[in-house]
Fold:
Amino acid sequence: MGLGEKLRRIFVTLFVLLPAAAIFLAGCAKNSGVNADPPAKPTRTAPAHFNVLTYHNDNFRTGEDLSETVLTPANVNPSKFGKVAFLEVEGLVDAEPLYVADVPIAGARHNVVFVATEHDRVYAFDADTYAPLWRVSLLGDGETTSGKRDCDQINPEIGITATPVIDLSAGPHGAIHVVAMSRDHKRHYFQRLHALDLATGAELPGSPRNIEATFPGHGAGSRNGQVVFDPRQYEDRAALLLAHGVIYTTWSSHCDHEPYNGWVIAYDSATLKPAGVLNLTPNGTDGGIWMTGDGPAEDESGNIHLLTGNGTFDPQLDSRQFPASADFGNAFVKISRNGGTLVVADYFTMHDTVAESGRDEDIGSGGILLLPDVKDDAGRVHHLAIGAGKNQIIYVVDRDSMGKFDRHDAGIYQKIPGALGGGVFSKPSYFNGTVYYCAYMNTLKAFPVTNGKLATTPSSETAETFAYPGATPAISANGKSNGIVWAVQNGYSGILRAYDATDLSKEIYNSEQSGLRDKFYDNKFITPMVANGKVFVGTPTGVAVFGLLP
Structure:
């Protein structure tokens, strides 16, 4: 961790301990709280037609909301738009908030925003009145959250880090699935998958489920030919994925503290029974799945796509051109599910993957994006995925033939060095034929997709440079019109910025334009969540809510 990040953490900690009055001077905390009883009949002020059930809105991880009819480039400006509420919670909000419209709670219908925190708490707030509806603790009797595990990536406690996922078909009212880490007084550690009723927060039948796994192999953490999942060694950083009734959890380490491997552990959404396990470095080490909080993505055929971090890759290939050791460190990985078995169906890794992992220069620091079908200049349809990491190269892979390992990168669909201007600790987003990317210590850039190829230079970029970790943008639009790109600029205090999606040089709003009124403090990997006229931003003490001013 660099000096700047340490100073930022100190600053944020001091802020949390200071009297709340300084932050709420401009009335930003009006309507907030956690202990009050919910109102019987909340006022409904926003349309109830768009849900955010998963990280970045869909399983392609595009980050786009095409149903936004309230916010437009004409009214998102300092005189009409700003912070309208603050939802106070216990613990850092590292997970993206989620949103469900028209939930029946206590005899009334509510549009609800769900918030999960590092204090192992889950909250439901009315998204229109900001009243608390329910809150639950996911700690077992006598348990606490985990400490930081000698790693400052998540500090001072580890509880719920990964963005949950919502299954509207589970239970009587739908369920929010959450992974929570905890420990007991004997320092036994637990990772548990919970399924909570959307209307009450109560645990559904079969919940919680202790996350346990073994996998054949002789790599790090193995015993007697089996690699064993040790809950104390792992962090569920990447968002959960719900695909065809299966919940996928993916695992990284605390910093690079060994032993650890790259795990994918799946459960049935309805019952929480095990539904498959895969270790991506079973005969090696490392290969964790961070992806800056982005989740694994699902394609049209039900295959799962993700990026692995620095770890073992064996350049000695078998007859299928797969690594003979079955270790897939520092790679794009495509996973298919056959019954209860998860297998690697295809992959891509760069020609110098072993050297890159040795330098901790992996692609897994960034997130993945799947593009909708694109046609090349000959009319052929391509199914593409995009990722970039610390080596500052954008890789575009064909999901139908990813390229595997080649000492000249001959199988890659497209490779674009130098376009981002910095290492990537964020993920790209997509809207209306354009990919939006923001690397560390560089600008937010727009790359059009034309004739099946990603532009090698941006069509527009912001005037602002984004410090570590860059930014993961979100997009709101009404179909293809009124596109707005939202991004949080990290620093000693956060800045929410909004840009015209057709030209990123045109900033239409930022939260510093109105003094203290719109001020908030951010978390380094947070991404804005936009739903039905509101923008929700996680902070160290709650969620800042932005919308049209009264």
Observations:
- The chain has one domain: 3-548.
- The chain has a mean pLDDT of 91.
